[in-house]
Design a protein that fits this description.
The protein is of the alpha/beta class. The chain is built from 13 helices and 22 strands.
Length: 431
């Protein structure tokens, strides 16, 4: 019997297995496909690899991009395997199926474990019976196209849809984005997303909002999309970036694990309804973001190890996040629309990166940082738009969790010269 059995090697599973193994536990990880799952294998990280290559070399050809992508993706795979095996994790390939509360069958072998962690992730939801892979794509197929289509319809103006729109439009593909809500990138303040939308429009991306797709069909040479209004759209490729469904392991219900359409039910320690069985990452439906999956995997590992996890709130309101377009959007905490919705009085302070000392030396022409504080001058949100702003967000979550005042932050040290001083300069403007 092993100490910990982890199902899935995506963001959540990888960090759970790694932390447990590094602390001396006997860990077995089961993966039914390639190491890395969606997050590392064909989701968040791979899309960023492609977008980063374009940012580093704006003149790169699509063929060069694919070659560079293959090299970097291989490096990701090598790191995953090296890290896990180096920590002593045993990797077993195959699909895991629960046969008992403490046992999982993988092919013809049964693995018994003191603790089991379900980290099987999620998959794209589809509104058509037509299988994906030809003219209708999910993100998985879109990442491995061997040639560019002349045009593409993207269903979903969310983060995933917009990042793919930026990728394909850059190479001259005529992209149309269909969004059922009345705005692109819903859940983001207008001033944050406006530069991204303007950039995409400059690349001839067409946006259609307030339109719900009711049917997707394939024709001989493309995809046919039917809107709720009855209007039909055609494109060589259709990329589906809609909602996601949890990957519930086979046999989970048979052993008493409770789950619904959103995912597996868990408590604040990510324990399921079955003792010693955890569910972390997308499969529990709490937050479909890689950062949350990593956070949950670490929290579950700490609980297994008998150590305290400092996760205070699994609602994930105000979680740090980023959109890796050009320019990038990144931030943490609440945005203006959320503060208005909650009836919280607030003040907005902005500072342009071009007016920071480091921004001047780097030749920044655009981008800004926006700080939101309440009536007591306590931080409510820190948001920014610009080149590589995702790199500035990392630890800002701590400032909000600790509810620091503006004066406390002003009395802190910032590296000089650095773009992070844009935060300091913004706060100096606060009256």
């Amino acid at each position: 019997m092993v100490d910990v059995l982890v199902l899935g090697s995506g963001s959540a599973g990888y960090y759970t297995a790694l932390l447990c193994a590094l602390n001396g536990l006997h860990v077995t990880l089961v993966e039914k496909e390639a190491l890395g799952g969606t997050g590392f294998g064909y989701g968040a990280l791979p899309v960023k690899i492609l977008l980063d290559s374009i940012k580093e070399n704006p003149n790169i050809s699509f063929q060069q991009l694919l070659e560079d992508y293959g090299i970097k993706l291989a490096a990701v795979q090598n790191k995953l395997e090296s890290d896990l095996k180096g920590a002593g994790v045993k990797i077993v390939y195959g699909e895991g199926q629960f046969v008992e509360r403490d046992a999982v069958k993988v092919q013809d072998n049964i693995i018994k474990a003191k603790n089991i962690v379900i980290a099987t992730g999620s998959r794209p939801a589809h509104i058509s019976d037509v299988p994906c892979g030809n003219h209708i794509l999910t993100h998985k197929e879109a990442l491995f196209l061997d040639r560019l289509p002349k045009d593409m319809i993207i269903l979903g103006g969310n983060v995933e849809g917009i990042e793919f729109a930026a990728l394909f439009a850059k190479f001259g593909v005529k992209v149309s984005v269909i969004e059922m809500f009345d705005e692109i990138l819903p859940g983001n303040d207008t001033d944050l997303k406006r530069p991204v939308i303007d950039m995409l429009k400059a690349l001839n991306v067409n946006f259609s909002t307030g339109n719900k797709v009711v049917e997707i069909e394939e024709s001989q040479d493309g995809a046919v999309i039917t809107l709720q209004t009855g209007k039909k759209l055609t494109g060589e490729k259709c990329l589906v970036c809609l909602s996601r469904l949890p990957n519930i392991p086979k046999g989970a219900g048979d052993i008493g694990i409770e789950y619904g359409k959103e995912g597996i039910a868990v408590d604040h320690n990510f324990l399921t309804s079955v003792p010693k069985v955890y569910a972390v990452g997308d499969v529990n439906g709490k937050c479909l973001m890689g950062s949350a999956a990593i956070n949950q995997g670490i929290s579950a590992a700490l609980h297994i190890l008998g150590r305290k996890a400092f996760l205070k709130d699994i609602s994930y309101e105000g979680i740090p996040r980023a959109i890796f377009t050009t320019p990038e959007i990144a931030g943490v905490g609440l945005q203006e629309w959320e503060l208005q919705q909650k009836g919280i009085q607030y003040k907005v302070i902005k500072n342009e990166f071009s007016k920071t000392w480091r921004g001047i030396s780097k030749g920044y022409k655009e981008g800004f940082i926006k700080v939101l504080v309440d009536g007591q001058n306590k931080l409510q949100g820190i948001w920014m738009v610009g080149r590589d702003v995702s790199e500035l967000v990392g630890f800002l979550d701590i400032l909000l969790k600790e509810k620091l005042s503006v004066d406390q932050i002003l009395n802190s040290l910032f590296v000089h010269p650095s773009l992070s001083e844009g935060f300091l300069d913004a706060l100096l403007k606060l009256n």
